[in-house]
Specification:
alpha/beta; four-stranded parallel sheet; Rossmann fold
Length: about 160
């Protein structure tokens, strides 16, 4: 959020249904697509500008699914993207094989939810343009490396959308 805001992008950060103080019940990615679409509708109404959709972990998986076909979204960022089945959830990204929007995927080298070999194989199958960046020495939450994460996003946004 801070990286995108540093470019002057208005940002919206929200909890999915059932998370934090939000209402509703977790819907395993189905209803959460509606949450992202509602957020995109609000952003379009409040700030009629191109949208860069960024998400973390489950939010990245759902955000990519919602943002790829949405013409309001010009670029996609997935942080800590989970791959494979985790806790009864299946994470598949075949829908990105035809998504030609710029995509930045950032993962910690010690992320147990995005093992390097599996994530690299997933990203290899995605349509260009795409960029996978590993932040060494950190986990799923980018512990101790948030400054490096922010600089990574700022650099990519500057080159891609600048």
């Amino acid at each position: 959020m801070k990286a995108l805001n540093s470019f002057g992008f208005p940002t919206l950060r929200f909890n999915f249904r059932g998370a934090g103080l939000s209402h509703g019940k977790h819907d395993h990615g189905h209803g959460e697509l509606g949450d992202v679409r509602a957020a995109l509708d609000w952003l379009e109404h409040e700030f009629p500008l191109p949208i860069v959709l960024a998400g973390f972990s489950f939010g990245a998986a759902v955000g990519l699914r919602a943002g790829c076909p949405d013409p309001r979204v010009t670029a996609l960022i997935g942080l800590g993207l989970p791959v494979g089945p985790i806790d009864g959830r299946s994470y598949e990204y075949g829908f990105l094989r035809n998504c030609v929007k710029p995509k930045l995927l950032v993962s910690g080298s010690q992320d147990i939810f995005g093992p390097r070999a599996q994530l690299e194989q997933t990203v290899e199958s995605l349509a260009d343009p795409k960029k996978l960046i590993w932040i060494e020495g950190t986990d799923h939450f980018f512990a101790g490396k948030l400054h490096e994460l922010r600089k990574t996003i700022e650099t990519w946004v500057g080159k891609t959308l600048g």
